[in-house]
Amino acid sequence: MYLDQISFNNFRCLVDGKLKFDRYFNLIYGKNGQGKTSLIEAVHFLATGKSFRTKKVKEIRKYNLNRLIVFGKYRHKDLSENIIAIDVNEDKKDFYIDREKNKYINYVGLLNIISFIPEDIELIIGNPGIRRNFFNYEISQAKKEYLQSIVNFEKILKVRNKLIKEKKTGEEIYKIYNEKFIEEGLNIVLNRREFIKKLSILLNLNYRKLFDENSELKLKYDCFLGDVEKKTREELKEKFEILCRRKSEREKFLGYSLLGPQKDDFVFELNGKNAKAYSSQGEKKSIIFSLKISEIDILIKEKKEYPIFIMDDIASYFDEVRKKSILSYFVNKKIQCFITSTEDLGIEGKKFIVEKGKIINE
């Protein structure tokens, strides 16, 4: 799978236009502050409906304009073509698949994308919510039904919290929603467990191959139910029900849910130590890059499609030796890449120079 072309109107500082991309390597380069990151942000937004720089839609529209449109064509390995587009008016997003308006849940995962950006360091040093949001999206790209479970669970959690706050936990309606809360929560836990188990194995292999063959890197699933690795669904359900009963009085006092997968976390361990506290900045960057490579491997295995990869400012991340190793990896893997840089990286493909928001195909 690869992105063949993109069109954008009113996207940040970029001059409106249409670009056709190389099947494999696309370098976006120029001086800082010219719009390089905005271009790969547009690619990311087209694929995901989200920016990797902000949660506020108004910040990605040109100043004083209410509407922005991003349109693209992507091709599969058999060269069949699909068209996707996002139309943003004020804060409302409309998603289109082959010119038909669609729900976001149908849009996610059509054009799979993996990004590597400076802000990704927050996946190690940031709060658990950052990691949950990240893994929720990555699992959703691979498994559409997981996204549906997340959507369902958030609705159920909202109602459950309302009933707790209103002191209605003794009513039949609460019992119904509590059962749904447990069932959908277990769906999320089991999907997370399966995904993290696969990802952790690949993560360690890729870290050793790319950065340090003598190290051991693990990704652990810190579930609110405790150790879930070898438990059956029925065993986990029983434990979930017990916890619900134990926490019920405290929940009534506080007025909200105290347990559930919305409390989960994910922990990176390098050589037996928590990377957040003990790893150097260089090691943290290498862990994140290995994570992204491992996501690519999982998507290829699960969906039999190659995702596209975007990387912002490669020179700020790695020294010359590691940079060459990383670029060589992508050349050999034959994955479509979008990489920004302040200089020409000397790799065959399409090169785009960005100057004051204007994109020139070299």
Automatic annotation (TrEMBL):
GO terms for cellular component: cytoplasm. GO terms for biological process: DNA replication; DNA synthesis involved in DNA repair; double-strand break repair; SOS response. Residues 2-344 form the RecF/RecN/SMC N-terminal domain. Keywords: ATP-binding, Cytoplasm, DNA damage, DNA repair, DNA replication, DNA-binding, Nucleotide-binding, SOS response. Belongs to the RecF family. NCBIfam families: recf. This is DNA replication and repair protein RecF. It comes from Leptotrichia buccalis (strain ATCC 14201 / DSM 1135 / JCM 12969 / NCTC 10249 / C-1013-b). The gene is recF.
